[in-house]
Specification:
By secondary structure, the protein is an alpha/beta fold. The chain has helices spanning 15-28, 50-59, 88-95, 122-152, 157-174, 186-193, 219-231, 240-248, 251-260, 267-278, 303-310, 312-316, 326-331, 335-340, and strands at residues 4-8, 42-46, 63-65, 68-73, 100-107, 203-209, 234-238, 281-287, 291-298, 318-324, 345-347, 358-363. The longest helix has 31 residues, at 122-152.
Length: 365
């Protein structure tokens, strides 16, 4: 199951620097973790999770395999992209293929780095990109809704339901608001996402700050954080320049370098985790002598779906899930201790997987 987070932004905001740091970090992980660079602008990186190392130590695992998320460096955007200006068509085509958007915003002042708009205004930059995406979504919906209205008038149930969702999205877009702000019932979420609207995708605003602001942010990143709150979007502040330096340091040197900047960990770790959370994902684990491994499922997934993340045959023949909560696994020093303490559970097909569950599946061949 692959999850893609597209990195977007105006020119000269630090987007490529950030992506390069991500891919360099991933390359450095290659000795311990599976890694692949699919294309020059696609990087598959491990999701940092200290729980995995703890489980491996307890289970005596020979190998550690983290879960992963894919970041896509999307071609830069300029005003008029919705009409094909610059690399607009390429930009829009690529962004439709990702599951979420990491929007890099320039939150630093530097006379040596020209801003395409001639000013430092990250909130304004965000609005420029969002406007282009809204215009493209609006054009797409207005073109598709006319034939759908005709079909709905014939009494076609599917067309009526789709029309109702399109109408919700159109109302927001015509007010200059992104489609992700639509009020949806749980049943409407999946079909709504299938409308293919770019502004319906979850957004993470990445504030690229100067080195001095890496630990606590600045006035620009604070303004972005407030905007993110209003838009129900995520927000993280990091310094792309620092991240690039960290990625090039030997592991033994990184902690000291970060500590000198009042940072507990690389900002990329927070970015990766934020992107993972943005997609509504959780992690469950398997642990044994051979390997300790993290697996990804959507929050709300049931036990058979988790089994299917490992192998489709596990889901088809699902019988039971042997389950231990992460905290119980650690506190009891492994599976045997958890059994003795009564923390080992057998869960059926209706069990909703919790983040951190350590699981083993029983299935029929």
């Amino acid at each position: 199951m692959g999850f893609k987070c597209g990195i977007v932004g105006l020119p000269n905001v630090g987007k490529s620097t950030l992506f390069n740091a991500l891919t360099q970090t991933a390359a450095a992980q290659a000795a311990n973790y599976p890694f692949c660079t699919i294309e020059p602008n696609v990087g598959d990186v491990a999701v940092p999770d200290s729980r995995l190392e703890k489980l491996a130590a307890i289970a005596g695992s020979a190998e550690i395999i983290p879960t992963r998320i894919t970041f896509v460096d999307i071609a830069g955007l300029v005003r008029g992209a919705s009409k094909g200006e610059g690399l607009g068509n390429q930009f829009l085509a690529t962004i439709r293929e990702v599951d979420a958007i990491a929007h890099v915003l320039r939150c630093f002042e530097d006379d040596d780095v020209t801003h395409v708009e001639g000013r430092i205004d990250p909130v304004g930059d965000a609005e420029t990109v969002e406007t282009e995406l809204m215009l493209a979504d609006l054009e797409s919906l207005e073109r598709r809704i006319v034939p759908l209205e005709k079909k709905a008038k014939t009494g076609d149930k599917d067309s009526k339901e789709q029309l109702a969702l399109m109408t919700k999205a159109l109302a927001l877009l015509r007010e200059g608001k992104p489609a992700r702000l639509a009020e949806l019932t749980p049943e409407e979420r999946a079909p709504y996402s299938q409308l293919g609207l770019m502004t319906a995708k979850p957004v993470l605003f990445v504030c690229n700050v100067d080195e001095a602001s890496a630990a606590h942010g600045n006035k620009y990143s604070n303004a972005v954080a407030e905007m993110a709150r209003r838009q129900r979007a995520g927000c993280v502040a990091i310094s792309a320049r620092i991240e690039e330096e960290v990625a090039q340091l030997a592991p033994a040197e990184r902690a000291e370098f970060l500590a000198s900047l009042e940072l507990e960990e690389p900002g990329l770790n927070r970015l990766i985790r934020a992107g993972y959370a943005l997609l509504g994902l959780i992690t469950f684990f398997t642990a044994g002598p051979k390997e300790a491994r993290a697996w990804t499922v959507v929050d709300g997934a049931r036990a058979p779906q988790a089994a299917g993340a490992i192998h489709t045959d596990f889901e088809k023949g699902f019988i039971r899930a042997e389950t231990i909560a992460y905290d119980d696994y650690v506190a009891c020093n492994g599976e045997a201790g958890a059994r003795d303490a009564g923390k080992f559970r057998l869960e059926g097909k209706d069990y909703v997987v919790r983040d951190g569950d350590v699981m083993h599946f029983r299935f029929a061949n």
